[in-house]
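Repro case for the chain-ordering regression, as requested:
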Amino acid sequence: MWNLTPFEIEAVRLSLRVAFWAVAGSLPIGLFTAWLLARRDFPGKSLLNGFLYLPMILPPVVIGYLLLILLGRRGPLGSWLFDILGVTVAFTWKGAAVASAVMAFPLMVQAIRLSLEAVDRRLEQAALTLGAGPARVFLTVTLPLAAPGILTGTILSFARSFGEFGATITFVSNIPGETQTLPLALFSLFQAPGGEAGALRLMIISILLAMAALLVSEFLARRVAARIGG
Amino acid sequence: MLEVDISRRFGDFPLHIRFTAETGLTALFGRSGAGKTSLINLLAGLERPDGGRIEIDGHVLFDASEGVDLPPEKRRLGYVFQEPRLFPHMSVLGNLSYGMRLRPASERHQDFHQVVDMLDLKPFLDRRPKTLSGGEKQRVAIGRALLASPRLLLMDEPLASLDAPRKNEILPFIERLRDEANLPIVYVSHALDEVIRLADTLVILSEGRAVASGSVEQIMSRLDLRPLTGRHEAGAVFSAAVVAQDDTFGLTELAFAGNRLLVPRLRMPEGTSLRVRIRARDVSLSLTPPADISVLNIFPGRIEEIGADGGPQADLLVDIGVPLIARVTRKSLHELDLKPGKKVYALVKAVAVDRPSLGQRGTEMRS
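-- result from build under test --
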C-alpha cells in the first residue's frame, strides 16, 4: 500500500526534474528582468511589464500552442535550436521544463521585483561612497537584502512548475517516461476506465509533496531572515 | 585642500556655492532649506551639478567644462549620513571593514585598531547593527567611513537624529576625530552650539549661496551676519584657557586676552584650551564701573560698532581685548547715548556661560 509503483516513481521524478530545470533556467533571467523593472527606466517598460503577465492571463493552452509554433522542430526558434545546438525541445522533457518556466515566470519576477524595490537605496548609496562599484554594491548589499524575496520567488515558481498542466500537454503532449509529469499522469489515470484508485494515490502524493515543499520553504525563509538580521 | 565652485538648479531653487576647506573641521552652517544636504550630495557624487568644478588636493572630482565627473566610488570622500545607514546583514566588524577591504593596503591611512579604540567600538565588533543604540550606530558609521581611508570626511548633521544625551555622548568622539585622525572634515549643521564647539572654519550658507567664511571667532563677531547666525543663540566666540580652579566656590577661572572670566566649575585640567561663546543677550553694559553688584565678570571696553535694524533691540560690538557682542534695548541705546568709540563696562554673569557654550580645542591649540 505504501510502496510506490514504478509508474508513480517515474511521474514524481520527472516532475521534480522538470520543475528543477524550469526554475534553474529561468532564475537568472527572472533576476535580471526583475532588476530591470525595479531599478531602470526605459522606453517600453510598461509594454514589457504587460507582456510579462501574459502567461497569467492567457489560457495555458494558448501559451502551449504558441510555444509549439515557436519552438517546434520547424518553428523559427526551434529550427535554430536544432540546427545550431542539436537540441529538440518539442515533445521532450526539456520542452516540459520550458513550458513550466514560462508559466511560472510572472510569479517569480513579481516576488523578486517587490523585494528589490524594498531594498533601502540609501544603503546602496552608503556602499558607493565607501568605494564599492555598482556591480559590487549589487552583489554585497542589494542581493543579500533581497534574498528573502528571491527565495519566495524561487519556491513559488517551483510549485507552479510542479503543477503545470495546460501548456505542457499542449506543447509536449503526454508521453509516459518523457513528458508525463505528475499532473499529466493523474489526468491519464482519471481518464482511463478503472484508474480512480491510482488517481487517488497520485493526488495524495501531490498533497504530501506540496506540504513538504511549504515546510522546507518556511524553514529556509526563517534562516535567511535571521541571517539578514531583520 | 578641497576647492568647490558648483551650481545646480533644484526646481525654482538655484544653488551656487563656492568655498574652500583646508585641514581641520570646516562647518557649513545654515538654516533648514539653505541647501546643505544637496551640497554634500553634489560633493559626494550622489547628485550631479549643472556646472562648475570640485577639486581635492589636485585631484579633479568634477569639472563641467572638461567633462570630468567621477562616480561616488572613485571620489574617496567618506560620508557620514544623518542616519547611520549601517548594513543590517553584516556584523559591526563587517560594516567597519567594508570600505577598508576595497582599499589597497598601500592607500590605507587609517589603522583599524586605532580607529576602533578612538571610537570605543571594541565591545560591539561581533554584534548586529540592530542591537546597538542610536549613538553607538553613529559611531560605527563614522568608523566605517574613516576606515575606507578617504581624502576628506563629509558629515551631514550626524547628530540630528539623536536626542540630547546621545549628542553629548558623540560630540567628544567627533572632537577626537578632528584632532587625531589628521583628515579634513566638512561638517554640515544647523545647530550653532555644535558648530561653535567643533569647527575651525565656518562657512555660512543662505539661500543656496555661501555668504561668508572665516574662523568661528571672526564670523561670530560680525554684526551683519546676525540674522543668519541666529538671534536668540547669537554671541561672540573667543578662545580662552583654564588657569585656576576655585574650590571654595566651585568656579573655574579662564584667561583670555589679558582678562579673567569666571564660570561655573569645569572639570578640566589647567592649561586646557577652550572656545567660549558669550551670548549677546547675557551681556549688559554700564557707563561707570558698577559697585556692589552680583555680576562677577566686568570688562572695560570700547564700543566698535552698533548694529540696529529698527527693532526694539540693538547689538553692539564691544572691544574688550577680543570682540564681545552685547544686546541691549534701543531705549538703553538712546538713554545712555551709546555710540562707537564710547568707553563702557561689559557685564557677564558667570552662570550664563554654560557647558554647551564651551568647546574643548585640539592639541594644536593647547600649549
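Ordering looks correct now. DSSP finds ten helices and 21 strands in chain B.
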